Amino acid sequence: MIQHSIFVWSISIIVANFATLSSIMDFTSNSCILGLSPMDDVTDFPFRSLCKEFGADILYTEFIAAEGLNHDAFKSKRKMTISDAQRPVGVQIFGADEKELIKCLESVESVSPDFVDINWGCPVSKVASRGAGSGMLKDIPKLLKITQSVVRHSSVPVTVKTRLGYDDDSRCIATLARQLQDVGIAMLAIHGRTKTQMYRGLADWKAIGEVKNDPQIHIPIYGNGDIVEARQAVGMYNRYGVDGVLIGRGAIGNPWIFEQTKRLMQGLPEREITVAERVDVCLKHLLASIDFFGEHTGLIVMKRHYAAYFKGLYNFKQFRTLLMEARTMDELMPLFDRISDYYSDKDGREACS
User: Fold this and answer.
1) Which of 124, 130, 208, 307 is 20 to 30 A from 321 in CA distance terms?
2) Range of 325's domain?
3) What is the enclosing helix (H) or strand (E) of 278?
4) Could you tell me whether strands 58-65 and 89-94 are parallel, antiparallel, or unpaired per DSSP bridges?
5) Which helix (H) or strand (E) holds 145?
6) Which is more confidently placed, 181 or 10?
7) d(CA 319, CA 336)
8) Is 1 inside a domain boundary?
9) Residue 346: what pLDDT?
């Protein structure tokens, strides 16, 4: 029987001491920094906390509209909830209006983030069509002007997350990286696709590596895109020498990816994640989500995580359907017990199809 309480996890010293950023936010370390990439409706407070426990070195909030903060929108403000245990953590903002972005810094700095990140990379139409996110890659002079203004008005380091360019005919990241460095950003994170690619095709890590190895580049460069397994993070770090690797979709339902990556980097094998541990961590995430959002919203938020937590388990469809249909904790708790009991006589390998 699963106890209905928050579980306390003791993560290996491998995770705790592997890559520690200095007290000065310089975004570098003597080893690869692993970060949880910002994802809207995913990297909320409960999920960030969980990834931190399993070894994420640096965290971002979900991206937050500058206009929402300036209009004191409750959901926008809630996205800025951070804790000392999550540090270093940055608040990611987006928008297309310089005055709005500068104005929102007052709200952002009220929660004392370690850095502010400008999102010049979101490819979603409702963002990019307004000139925000990667839509700004069509107007580089404006992008640079806004970025420089934010840098000048911010009391904490400013970073940027962007893409290779707007489309394949206008890849500009090599030049843009130097220009962003010149206007004063502290770190640049690059997703290895263009805006028009969205999430199709493969991320071009070679292009990210070329920026990192440009002799004119002196700021830290983080890479992002297609990292869904620990060995891929290690491979990209070793091959391209980036200062950090940001993991996005690969961390959904798999917060262990940070711990596993660090094990591989220290020459240790990945450890087996049992079905029992998957159940326990998913339940911990659920309880934290309900504690943060309230039962109704917390249950809705968790629906995007269930399938990933139990990916690959033989005959799990029956449970996934029930998890998605449950509307109260009273319905959910017996389901976790049933999942545990069903797979109790199988280890992780036997349970997978």
Assistant:
1) 124
2) 275-351
3) helix 275-293
4) parallel
5) helix 140-153
6) 181
7) 9
8) no
9) 57
Give 241-284 pLDDT, tens digit per residue.
Answer: 999 999 999 999 999 999 999 999 999 999 999 999 999 999 99
Instruction: Please state which of the ranges 169-183, 193-207, 232-246, 333-347 shows the lowest mean pLDDT.
Output: 333-347
Q: What DSSP string runs through 149-165?
A: HHHHH-SS-EEEEEESB
pTM over 0.85: yes
C-alpha pair distances (Å), 73 with each of 14, 76, 77, 246, 268? 40, 5, 6, 28, 46
For residues 255 and 49, what is the distance between their CA atoms, to the nearest angstrom?
10
How far lies 258's CA from each of 52, 169, 263, 278, in Å?
Answer: 9, 35, 9, 15
Q: What is the pLDDT of residues 17-31, one digit of tens each?
A: 444 454 456 688 778
One-letter amino acid of 318:
Q
Handedness of CA 151, 185, 76, 203 (dihedral sign): positive
Looking at the structure, tell me whether residues 164 and 259 fall in a common domain: yes
Please tell me the distance from the alpha carbon of residue 213 to that of residue 198, in angstroms, as a whole number: 25
130 and 210 belong to one structural domain:
yes
- Active-site positions read 122
Q: Give the total number of structural domains in the chain.
A: 2
CB of 164 closer than 8 Å to CB of 137:
no
| Residue 68, amino acid | G
Q: Would you state the pLDDT for residue 31? A: 81
Strand (E) or helix (H) holding 189 = strand 187-191
